Amino acid sequence: MEKIYPPLNSKLAGIGIDCCAVDRMQSLLNRRPMFFQSLTTLTEQAIHPPSLTRALILWTGKEAISKALKTGVWQAHIEWKDLQVLMDGQIQLGGYAKEKFANDHFELATEIKDGYAFSRVFRWTPL
Fold it and tell me: Which of 20, 44, 96, 127 is 20 to 30 A from 113 (CA-CA)?
């Protein structure tokens, strides 16, 4: 994963990390073929056609985002579709997440290696 440079006039407010075994995600997709659609917005579905790799990127990315927000999903009225993973590690928030964290800056990196997908998110908030 590449080195991240924080935005000027900001402080680190959260770090989120998630890992998922490739075979575990494949098993889930076999059991629940509509899992990908339940996790993603129409925008994400247009950008990320359903595939094992895309499911891994979106799942670990959204998990890492929720950890960086320090809210989890559902506990703070944030849903999976409120956390959008776009191209090149861009994150777009919706719903309550957008209201609460509108001024924050996020950096997402995902890597799939040796049978595992890893995502890490840094969240910076203005000073």
Answer: 44
41: in domain: yes
Q: What CA–CA distance (Å, rounded) separates 85 from 2?
A: 18
CATH of the domain at 118: 3.90.470.20
| Cβ(96)–Cβ(82) below 8 Å | yes
Tell me if the pTM is above 0.85. Answer: yes
